[in-house]
């Protein structure tokens, strides 16, 4: 079974909750650094006003802790905002399971107020948090477009009496919130650190498990570096990009996405190896990429103490997303 699991993971099969421990993958023993990293967990760009006529849900990666949470709120009159924090408990869960904390916050009448909830959570290990905002017809939240990986928005839809209950998965929908969430601020995070690209995971599990750069600037790329204390021989490098597993992709053609290629995928990047004199040499390149996984088999093996994935452009996302890098002799 372990051999089969290693083969499946090496070929990028989706095995929920299982991290690769492939002894042939040199990347697992590398130290990862990057030119920049997204370290603030927030979504502040206003898109649409969303009246709080039903409970709202917000999934956030918590790594290593949640030090606070603010929500952008409209209030028709003086009222109260009720917010609950849940632990989904299982890494594959995106539903509220165990109540961690509940707060009731007074809100004065007025538009576009950042309301602090005072919620804090130190779960002991990286995981998702499910934030439930209770319905209040005097309040409205704001949606935002293109939140960071692992941030999801939901609306609560109570089951009809004739339906089997409880079924938390069926009680929450992302209708109208696909590729969106609610405006929030949650402080610092390590969820997108370079080390996440070499932790053995290739799919979300108790967090997004990928490196995310700060927004790219015109003409300036972002790089992810893997380094070893001693030279290693590299003959094949696999680069796994973010294909947004939350995207609704089907082959029945009854709807289309607003894009031809997933924006989160890397478009143009190069693979570099560090020479003995400290300079960097390009050993492979990908242009106009439209795939999640690219296998770079080098013309000749190289011996080096470090390699870099230098992202020049994405297919639309403001930041570079690298789910995993794998390196083999």
Explain this structure.
The chain has 329 residues and is mainly beta. The protein has 2 domains: 2-38 and 192-328, Jelly Rolls; 40-188, Jelly Rolls (Sandwich). Helix content is 3%, strand content 45%. It is built from 1 helix and 20 strands. Strands 1, 15, 16, 17, 18, 19 and 20 form a 7-stranded antiparallel sheet that branches. Strands 2, 3, 5, 8, 10, 13 and 14 form a 7-stranded antiparallel sheet that branches. Strands 7-6-9-4-11-12 form a 6-stranded antiparallel sheet, with no helix packed on it. Strand 17 (266-274) and strand 18 (280-286) form a beta hairpin. The mean pLDDT is 94.
Question: Could you say which overall geometry the principal axes of the C-alpha atoms support?
Answer: elongated
Name of the CATH architecture of the largest domain: Sandwich
Unreliable stretches (pLDDT < 50, length at least 5) are none
Distance between the termini: 24 Å
CATH fold title of the largest domain? Jelly Rolls
One letter per element, helices H and strands E, the order comes to HEEEEEEEEEEEEEEEEEEEE
CATH superfamily of the largest domain: Galactose-binding domain-like
Give the helix proportion (percent range). under 10%
Task: Quickly count the domains.
Answer: 2
The count of β-strands is: 20
Q: What key phrases describe this protein's structure?
A:
2 domains; single chain; 3% helix; elongated; seven-stranded antiparallel β-sheet; 329 residues; Jelly Rolls; mainly beta
């Amino acid at each position: 079974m372990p051999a089969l699991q290693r083969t499946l993971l090496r070929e990028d099969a989706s095995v929920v909750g299982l991290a690769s421990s492939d002894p042939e993958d040199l990347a697992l023993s590398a130290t990862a650094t990057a030119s920049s990293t997204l370290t603030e967990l927030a979504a502040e760009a206003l898109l649409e006003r969303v009246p709080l006529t039903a409970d709202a849900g917000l999934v956030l990666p918590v790594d290593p802790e949640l030090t606070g949470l603010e929500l952008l709120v409209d209030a028709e009159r003086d009222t109260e905002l009720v917010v609950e924090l849940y632990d989904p408990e299982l890494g594959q869960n995106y539903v509220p399971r165990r109540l961690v904390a509940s707060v009731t916050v007074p809100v004065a009448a007025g538009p576009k107020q950042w309301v602090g909830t005072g919620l804090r959570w130190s779960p002991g290990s990286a995981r998702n948090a499910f934030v439930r905002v209770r319905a209040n017809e005097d309040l409205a939240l704001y949606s935002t477009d293109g939140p960071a990986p692992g941030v999801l928005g939901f609306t609560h839809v109570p089951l009809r009496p004739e339906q089997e209950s409880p079924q938390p998965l069926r009680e929450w929908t992302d209708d109208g919130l696909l590729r969106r969430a609610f405006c929030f601020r949650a402080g610092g995070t390590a969820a997108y650190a370079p080390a996440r690209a070499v932790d053995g995971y290739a799919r979300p599990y108790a967090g997004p498990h990928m490196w995310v750069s700060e927004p790219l600037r015109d003409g300036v790329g972002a790089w992810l570096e893997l380094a070893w204390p001693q030279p290693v021989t590299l003959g094949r490098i696999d680069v796994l990009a973010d294909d947004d597993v939350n995207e609704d992709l089907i082959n029945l053609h009854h709807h289309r996405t607003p894009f031809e290629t997933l924006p989160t995928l890397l478009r143009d990047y190069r693979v570099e190896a560090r020479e003995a004199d400290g300079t960097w040499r390009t050993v492979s390149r990908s242009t106009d990429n439209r795939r999640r996984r690219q296998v770079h088999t080098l013309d000749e093996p190289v011996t080096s103490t470090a390699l870099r994935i230098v992202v020049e452009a994405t297919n639309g996302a403001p930041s570079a997303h690298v789910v995993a890098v794998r390196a083999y002799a």
